[in-house]
Structures are given as structure tokens and as C-alpha cells.
Amino acid sequence: MSIRQGLLNAYGVSKSGFDLRSQTILFLIYLHGSINHNKWKYTEKFIRSYIDFVKSGPLLTIKVKSFQNGRLISAPFQFRAHNFYDYQSISECFGSMYSMSTIDISDMEYLIDAGGNIGAFTRSFLESDHSFKEVVLVEPDPDNYTIMCHNTAFIEHSACIQAALDNKKGEAVFSKSHANMGHLSDIDMPVSSSESFTVKTETLSDIIPASFDLDKTVLKLDIEGAEYSVLPEFFQHKIYPKYIIGEIHTYLKSHGDQLIDLIKSHGYQVDVEITRDHPDAAIQFYARRTV
């Protein structure tokens, strides 16, 4: 990415901030991940110095625009200072990783954020001149879970579930990476683990509230390889949200095209964005139920 494009994208992300301080921090966070540090060697040092200046502890809180009950409000958003992976999550969700340009959510009323991480995706959705009646977020990592719940506490009808999604209820070993993510230990993922611990597992079919109108529901999936077992189990129950968006990991190595075919077979039109041809690369997909 060129410096000019990086600056333009950073400016776009910064507009999610409610005040100048928050806008500046978002601008710098996006810039941190998009620039070529070899060509612009003093930028990272400046960004770290600025974050040190504005933070008051290991966590940094900014004000992000959000819609609640049809009105724009300022709601706090928290993340770990000097954590590149939190920066990456913010840049991806408030940037262009999950492009909503092909998705009309104007009449969507319910959101399930599976793989909620620190809540950045849900918060990015809520700044798009839209609010949901109910939101459910699922995240197994206890550190991410705590931040995620804080970042979505202002949403009137929201529920945070501390669990990993699997094709059965119970418990499983969760491998946490050095990044701000992890995966179930029996899934072959191209990341090293820093620690492992036992987590509760839930099925997707069990965590969707009966009150959700599926024709007005968005399901986001970013569950680090578990989608290969979670979606087949989910579809067995004939539960079909209007939109399914997210990532399919190790797409080429794990034959992700077969999972796309499965989604299509249940009445979805699917768009796929393949940006790299590495066997371990993930792809983004956008599925809309048309029947």
C-alpha cells in the first residue's frame, strides 16, 4: 500500500471517532498497520510515543460513534495499548475488511457476532446509521471477553457468551496464540500457541435466541477454522439467517470451496473475496439467503 493510500484509508477510519482525540488515535492505529516501516522508519516510534502520552494504564479508551435507538451517541471503546493485534482488529473492522457495500442491513434487527474478539465488528456495524434490537456476541478467550463485554455494555439488549463454537456442547481445549485470538486445539491452524486451557463449547444452533426473526438477522462468523464443523451442524437444524458474513480459514488447504458449496445449497447467494493464493490464507465471504 502506498503512503498516500494509507493516509486516505486512515482518515476514513478516523471518522469513526467521536472527538478529536479519538479520531487522532484511530488515524494512527490504522497508519501503524498499513505503512512500510522501512520507508517511514520514525512513524512507529511517534505512534508509540503518542499512545504512551494519552493512555492511563494498560488499556486505552476512546469515544466511538454509535447509533442507539435511532440516535447518534458517543460510546466508550477500550483496547490494549501497544497491542498490534488489537490495532489490527480495529483497522480491519472499522476499515474495509468486512465491506458492507454489498449488504443492505437497513431492515436487519438482530446480530450474532461469533468470534466477537474485543467487540470491534459489532461496534463498526453500530456506527453505520443503524441500531439492532438485540445483539449476541460469542468469544472464548477470557481477556478478549472482558473487553468485548465492556465495549458493548451500552447496547440495551445485548448478551455476551463466553464459549467457543463447536459442533457439540461441552468442553474443549483452546489454544491461545501470541496474537489476540486462538482456536480449538484439534483444528490445524498456521499459528503458534502461547498457552492452552479448557473452555466451554456451544453450538451455533443453541445460542441463537428464539426471539430472533431470522429474516432480519445477520450472522458474522470469524471462528478460526471451526466454521468447517460449526456450519454443517447449524444447517442440520434448518436455521437460516438472512445474511452470513465472515471468514473461511485455510481456504485452499482445507477445501473451503466445499463449504461455500454447502452454504449455496441452503439457498444462499455467496460472494467470495480471495486476495491471496497461499494455502493457509483465509478468505472473506458474504452470503445472502434468497429463497
Explain this structure.
The strands form 3 sheets. The protein has a 7-stranded mixed β-sheet with strand order 5-4-3-10-11-13-12, sandwiched between helices. The radius of gyration is 19 Å and the shape is globular. The protein contains 9 helices and 13 strands. The chain has helices spanning 3-14, 20-34, 43-54, 84-94, 120-125, 142-151, 204-207, 227-236, 256-265; strands at 59-68, 71-80, 110-114, 134-138, 158-161, 164-165, 170-177, 182-184, 193-202, 217-221, 243-248, 268-273, 283-289. Strand 4, helix 6 and strand 5 form a beta-alpha-beta unit. Helix 2 (20-34) packs antiparallel against helix 3 and helix 2 packs across helix 4 (84-94). By secondary structure, it is α/β, with parallel strands linked by helices.
Key phrases:
291 residues; seven-stranded mixed sheet; four-stranded mixed sheet; globular
Question: How are the elements arranged and paired?
Answer:
Layout: H1 3-14, H2 20-34, H3 43-54, E1 59-68, E2 71-80, H4 84-94, E3 110-114, H5 120-125, E4 134-138, H6 142-151, E5 158-161, E6 164-165, E7 170-177, E8 182-184, E9 193-202, H7 204-207, E10 217-221, H8 227-236, E11 243-248, H9 256-265, E12 268-273, E13 283-289
Parallel strand pairs: 3-4, 3-10, 4-5, 6-9, 10-11
Antiparallel strand pairs: 1-2, 7-8, 7-9, 11-13, 12-13
Helix pairs in contact: 1-2, 2-3, 2-4
Main sheet strand line-up: 5-4-3-10-11-13-12
CA radius of gyration: 19 Å
Number of helices: 9
Distance between the termini: 40 Å
Give the overall pLDDT as a whole number.
87
- The overall strand count is 13
Largest sheet: 7 strands, mixed
Question: Which range best describes the helical content: under 10%, 10-25%, 25-40%, 40-55%, 55-70% or over 70%?
Answer: 25-40%
Secondary-structure-derived class? alpha/beta
Secondary-structure element string: HHHEEHEHEHEEEEEHEHEHEE
**Which strand-content bin applies to the residues?**
25-35%
Low-pLDDT regions: none
- Overall, the morphology is globular
